[in-house]
Structure formats: structure tokens, C-alpha cells
């Protein structure tokens, strides 16, 4: 069993991002990400629809799912969802530079320098306020702890309607 969310995410390079568009319709996309302490960061272009969605509505959902080509059961893929408040980091600030340094460590100097040269890329910061993780049938957890990375057992109920798979 994975001990915490950080262990589960250690080999992930990208995250699925769910936002709301200008009409309130759901929109899903993905972006490469980094995680520093309790926050997630993406570096995305103004050309991407999720960028305008994040600028307009400062909440989103991040979704991480086990690679389906290597999972043992497609119906029980390990996965985690984190709901977040979103903040755009000011361009050319010290805060942005520190995050871009972390992106360079994970993805390489050449790529990040090229994206920075385009001038329309922005770092967004995601601060979790709720999360869930599922690691198989009957193995559903809430995320807790100071950094929302600890698995917290859900209270058992006789009429569970979630992934705890209680009796009906």
C-alpha cells in the first residue's frame, strides 16, 4: 500500500486539470506540474483554454490516475483528486523565478527557457482545500494532514454511496 499521496505522485509528470468555462461548463485538460511542500504548480500558456478558465474562476480540481497500461485492474486504478484554490504567480517575480527553477530541475532548462521566452506562459499555484484517494475496491480515503497528503480512513456507514462499497 502506498504510504501517502506524495509517494503515489513521485513518478507523475503531469496532472489532469478540471476547470469551468465562461458558461459554467466543465472543461478538462492536462499540464506538466511540480509540487513544492503543500502546493502544486503548473506553467501554462495564455493560448490554453484552461488558463482563461483559471484566471476567471480561481478554483479547480486536479486529478491523478495510475497509468492504465500498467495497472492490475482497469476498474480499480489508483487515483487521487484534489480540489484547490488557484492563484496566478506574478510574471518576472522572485516567486515565479523560484518555481521556474524547480520546473527546470524536473523538466530541463532548455524546455523551460524556451517557454519563458514565449512571454505568454504563467505559473499558477494550486492550494488544496479538499481531497480524496482511491487505491482499489474498498480502499477509499479522504486526504488530510497539513499538506493534504495523508490518507485518512473514511467513517464506515451501512449505506455508503461512495467508493467505500458499503452495503445498500
From TrEMBL:
Signal peptide: none annotated. One of its GO terms (molecular function) is coenzyme F420 binding. InterPro entries: F420H2_bilvrd_red/Heme_oxyg (IPR052019), HutZ (IPR014419), Pyridox_Oxase_N (IPR011576), Split_barrel_FMN-bd (IPR012349). It holds the Pfam family PNPOx_N. Keywords: Oxidoreductase. It comes from the Bacteria. Residues 1-132 form the Pyridoxamine 5'-phosphate oxidase N-terminal domain. One of its GO terms (cellular component) is cytosol. Coiled coil: none annotated. This is Pyridoxamine 5'-phosphate oxidase N-terminal domain-containing protein. It comes from Poseidonibacter parvus. The lineage of its organism: Bacteria, Pseudomonadati, Campylobacterota, Epsilonproteobacteria, Campylobacterales.
Amino acid at each position: 500500500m502506498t504510504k501517502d499521496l506524495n509517494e503515489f505522485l513521485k513518478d507523475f509528470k503531469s496532472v489532469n486539470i478540471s476547470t469551468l468555462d465562461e458558461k459554467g461548463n466543465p472543461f478538462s485538460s492536462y499540464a506538466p506540474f511540480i509540487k513544492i511542500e503543500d502546493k502544486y504548480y503548473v506553467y501554462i500558456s495564455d493560448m490554453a483554454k484552461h488558463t482563461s478558465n483559471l484566471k476567471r474562476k480561481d478554483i479547480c480540481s486536479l486529478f491523478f490516475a495510475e497509468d492504465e497500461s500498467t495497472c492490475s485492474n482497469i476498474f480499480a486504478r489508483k487515483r487521487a483528486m484534489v480540489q484547490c484554490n488557484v492563484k496566478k504567480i506574478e510574471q518576472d517575480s522572485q516567486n515565479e523565478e523560484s518555481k521556474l527553477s524547480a520546473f527546470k530541475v524536473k523538466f530541463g532548462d532548455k524546455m523551460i527557457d524556451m517557454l519563458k521566452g514565449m512571454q505568454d506562459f504563467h505559473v499558477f499555484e494550486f492550494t488544496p482545500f479538499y481531497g480524496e484517494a482511491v487505491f482499489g475496491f474498498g480502499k477509499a480515503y479522504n486526504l488530510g494532514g497539513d499538506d493534504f497528503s495523508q490518507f485518512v480512513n473514511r467513517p464506515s456507514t451501512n449505506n455508503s454511496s461512495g467508493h467505500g462499497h458499503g452495503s445498500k
